[in-house]
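Exercise 7. Predict the structure of Beta-galactosidase from Enterococcus alcedinis.
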Amino acid sequence: MATFEIKEEFMLNGEPFKILSGAIHYFRVHPSDWSHSLHNLKALGFNTVETYVPWNIHEANEGEFRFDGIRDLVSFMREAEKIGLYVILRPTPYICAEWEFGGLPAWLLNKDMRIRSSDPKFLAYVRKYYEVLMAQVTPLQITNGGPIIMMQIENEYGSYGEDKDYLRSIKELMEELGVDVPLFTSDGSWLATLAAGSMVEEGVLPTGNFGSRGKENFAALKDFHQSYGKKWPLMCMEFWDGWFNRWAEPIVTRETDELVDALREVLELGSVNLYMFHGGTNFGFMNGSSARGTLDLPQITSYDYGAPLDEQGNPTEKYYAIKEMVHELFPDLVQMDPIVKETMEILDVPLANKVSLVEVLDDISEKLVTKYPQPMEKVGQNYGYLFYRTKIRREAEKEHYRIIDARDRAKMYINGELIATQYQEKIGESIYFEPKEAINQMDILIENMGRVNYGHKLLADTQRKGIRQGVMTDLHFILDWEQYSLPFDQPLTMDYSKDWHEGQPAFYQFEFEIEQLEDTFINLQAFGKGIVLVNGNHIGRFWNKGATQSLYIPKGFLNKGANEVVIFETEGVHSETISFTKAPIFDLVETTLH
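Solution. The predicted structure, encoded as C-alpha cells:
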C-alpha cells in the first residue's frame, strides 16, 4: 500500500518527494477534455494535479446533490490516476477561485447564520454536504490505494477570519467522515495571515500562496514553522502564473521570462502548485466578482488566466519555457510531448429565428404574483435574470421613478420602450418619463452578474440579487407585481412564431451542420450583452464592453450533424449572421502583471 507523509520533507512510500503540481478545475473543463489537460500536465514532468471542489455545483439547491457530467469529481480523479498523477484535493466549503460566491451555494443567503464561522447553523449545513462529498472522495485517498495525497482545510482563512473553533470543527468533521491523508491550510506568506488561518497546533501543514519573491516568501513560511518548533517542507500551494480578468478591463498578462525565473526560485527551495495550470472557462453564470469599494466588479467568462495551457487546453509559450526550465533543474524527470487540439472556423451562419423575451415569458417561466417585488433568493432562484412587471397609473405629466436597492444591473421599460439602464452605482437614481397613456406597463429586467468571491463582502447584503426593497413612483412604493425567474438552468421550449420587437431583450436562434467536430470560438462582436446556449448548454456571458468578444465552445458541446445556438441578448443589438473562429477575439490592450 502506498503511503504519503509530511516529515522534514514530503515522503512518498518512505522516499523524499517533491510535489510538482498544477491546478486543473474539473468544473471549468469539459469532461471530454479532462484527459487532454491531465496528459499535458504529466508531459511537463509534473506528478500531481490540484483541484478545488465548489459546493455550489454539487448542492445548487438545498438537499439536492449532483456528481454527474462536469460535476463528476470521482471520474476526474480516476482519470488523473490512470495518467499517473497524484491528487491534492481542496474540498473546502469556501474556495474563492474567482468563482460565484466563492463556491458557497446561494441558498445559504436565506439562512439566519454567519457563513465561514463556528456558527452551529452554518456547520450543520457543511456537515450535510460533507457527509455526501466525503463518501465520494475518501475511497480515493492514498491510504485506500487511490491518488489523493493531501486535503485542505478551508481556504485562505487568514485573509478573512481567525475563528479557530471553526477551523477545528472542519478538521474534526473531515476526520470523522473518513479523511486520513495529511491536511494543510493555505494563506498568504506573511505573519498576520499565517497566524490567523493556520492550525499548526493541530498538526496541520501551513502552505503559502504567492506568485513571486520565492526566497522571501519561503523564508517567512519557514520562520513561521520554526516558531512552533516544526521542520516541515515548504510548499507554495498557489504559485500565480497569471491572473484573472474583469469586464471592460484590459487582459492581464505576465512575461514568460519573468515567470520562469520566479518559478525556478520556488522549485529550488520547495514544492509548488501552479495556479492555474489550465484555467478553463466559467461556464453558465459561475463567474465570481471582485469587491472594490461600493462596487462588485464581475469577472469575465474566460478563465484563461494566462496559464501554461490556454483556455482551450493547448500549450502556450509559458508551457514550453517551464518545461525547459524543469528539465534543467530535474534532468531525470520523464517528459513527453504535449497534445495540441485543433480548432475550426465556420463563417456566416444565417439567423434562423428570433423572438422577444416579453412574448415568451409564460412559455419559459412560471409567473409569480406578489404585492412587492421579491429578491432572487426569496423566490428560490440562485443565478441568472429576474423579470418584473406591473401596471402604473399616470399621475403627472412627467413621472419620477426610482429602483430602490437592487443588484446588479437593471433595464426599465415603459410600454415596451427602454427608458433607463442602471448599473450598481446608478441604481436608485431618478428616472424621468412622460407617459402617454392613463395606465402604463412597467417592465424591469434585472441581471445577477455574479456574487463576490473574496473578502468581507461575502457577508454583505449586496450578495442578495434582484430588487430587494421596491420601486417608487413619486414618493411611494409601487404595488402588485408579476415576476418571472430566468435562471436558464433547464432546456428552453421557444415559440419562435411569436413577435420580435426592435430594441428589446430577445432570443436569436442559429442552426447549422458540422461533419468534423473541433473546438471553436463564437464571434460576438455584433451583439451587445447576454448569454449563449449551445445545444442547450449554457457556455457563459458576453458583453461588448470587452476585453473578450468571443466565447469558447469545446467540441464536447457540439454534435456531429445538426447544431443549435441560441443567443439571449438584452441590449437590442444583434446580427443576422454569426461566425465561429479558430482563436479568441480581444478588443482591449493587454496590461502586464507586476
